[in-house]
């Protein structure tokens, strides 16, 4: 039977099913596009919001380098007449600065990085990312850059009077009358005010020193060289530990352990491996720790007061973009009379080898323990011994430091690296001392060869070589007698460090930003052979570097014994003598480190002397260390003796004593006792009173008496 085809069922669900699917699809599409749209709007809103907030509160912009002019190498080559020597206007640790005429016929300063290494690349990036985004009348303007293969150049506004280094210690010193010096101090303070309080996040310069203060045609100062600067990130170890609200640090202790080995690099900073690095600060301490620990101060109470910076800044508003629109509350030490409790020497004593081991395992709960440790480190730190408060005088300090640097275990001191006496010529053109010093040779270079050279000049010439050798031997014997014990200790400590490093043990560090490479081969970022030249000077930034021109700006050749720029390793920050001492103990780079450097700079400007200025005459060694000498003068109530004699009597005594006292405040050991930069600017402008002289520098420091009577009491009790 033929089968009948089934008639199509009238209620087949197919069309309605299709409709439903369509509807669902439509709904889904619409809702998902709505979600996407909403997300985009939300994202854009937040982006806009944060950008507009930034515009109001952050005067610099991380995309700023894009706004800088990009030059091609050829253009800059032409502008400087093929980098002609005649156009050289200065030479720094990382590059040579040329005068050049670019594009619109204007004069520019063009800095060409000499070699490309990880360090220079990082500094280049820092300069672009930080200085490139900042505009202030107190900062030198970075106008452009050039990146081509391994060539790196930076184009700055031209500063006709070069740097303060040249002006103070070069022929320009005549032009540095008192008013100009005072204005420079104020300008540098304003520049730091802008960086610390006008920028969000605050920028810490990290390398304030005379060669980084440039002078325009009117001798107004602008600061430059942001290669070592960084932006402060809240919640960092150093910030918490040293913030005036110290109590809070314990709450944040969780981050402590985690951050001991890291620090936040500035935008665009390449990340590098720490495996081959050794903590320089610890090595330095190990190489220079002494049994003569000195008294330290602890802070018992600080009366702190919050004040709204905006209120102050709005009224001043000297700096462009200086207003913190967020109304950020900035704490400020209000009570200058913070009380000190001197504590015992035993408390200061600490075995650094233990620190090396224990700090690696620093845990979250250990903040409370860590603070005294850090403080103890300071007590032990060689740097503190410059304060002249103990038995160790400047001479010991200077000699010990020399000793620590030339001890045989110091890898930086191979025989081939010591400048030979023949090579260290005294260049009369570089004798830029005060009149009293003019006839006195300065000790140049490092080690006894140099010392000998200095002494040699004092003796009649006909005595000749024999005498020189004799003096040399005498000096060495004298030093050996004094320091033999110390040397062997340092020797073993340094050996310990080196062995640990060789075994691949990653040295614990608090990210002091002060590490240095033990001589090791050969990768990107390592100093190359040329850098270790027997004729040259040692720069931690680049190892040994040839110094062909005995330029005025060259510290090495102008008698500044310690200006082998310690600013200079891969992550080394700051320059020895200018760098804040806490930085060697547990330091993240903080604003108060800049304040310390400013303190040194003020003394240098007022006195016309370098921070370490070793002269041949032993009588003058007390003046060798400017800070120590200033403290001694303060204790004897005679600070004006520090003022540059070349000024004769043509200076404002009130301003000079204000500057010196202010510098002493900035040079206090405890960072939180130093004034902040807003206060400093106000004090300089005469809008705020100078704080009382820090207790340790007052003419008759009660701390010593207190210490003695305490010991006596302790003895009686025993
Ligand atoms: N914009 C400029 N205008 C005029 N001269 C400049 C300018 N920039 C730098 N110089 C000169 O070049 C010198 C070297 O500057 P640079 O910043 O390279 O090195 P530095 O600060 O002396 O050393 P380092 O980089 O090791 O800290 C300065 O001391 C100054 O004399």
From TrEMBL:
Residue ranges of the TM segments: 23-48
Subcellular location: Cell membrane
E.C. number(s) listed in UniProt: 2.7.11.1
Top EC group: transferase
Biased composition (Basic and acidic residues): 414-426, 450-462
Pfam hit, one: Pkinase
Known catalytic reactions: L-threonyl-[protein] + ATP = O-phospho-L-threonyl-[protein] + ADP + H(+); L-seryl-[protein] + ATP = O-phospho-L-seryl-[protein] + ADP + H(+)
Residue intervals of the Protein kinase domain: 83-690
A cellular-component GO term for this protein: plasma membrane
UniProtKB keywords: ATP-binding, Cell membrane, Kinase, Membrane, Nucleotide-binding, Serine/threonine-protein kinase, Transferase, Transmembrane, Transmembrane helix
Positions with biased composition (Basic residues): 463-473, 707-718
PROSITE patterns assigned to the protein according to its UniProt record, in alphabetical order: PROTEIN_KINASE_ATP (PS00107), PROTEIN_KINASE_DOM (PS50011), PROTEIN_KINASE_ST (PS00108)
Region annotation (Disordered) ranges: 408-477, 694-718
Record-level Gene Ontology MF annotations: ATP binding; protein serine/threonine kinase activity
Residues that hold ATP according to the record: 111
Membrane topology category: Single-pass membrane protein
Record's keyword annotation contains Calcium: no
Annotated protein name in UniProt: non-specific serine/threonine protein kinase
Lineage of source species: Eukaryota, Viridiplantae, Streptophyta, Embryophyta, Tracheophyta
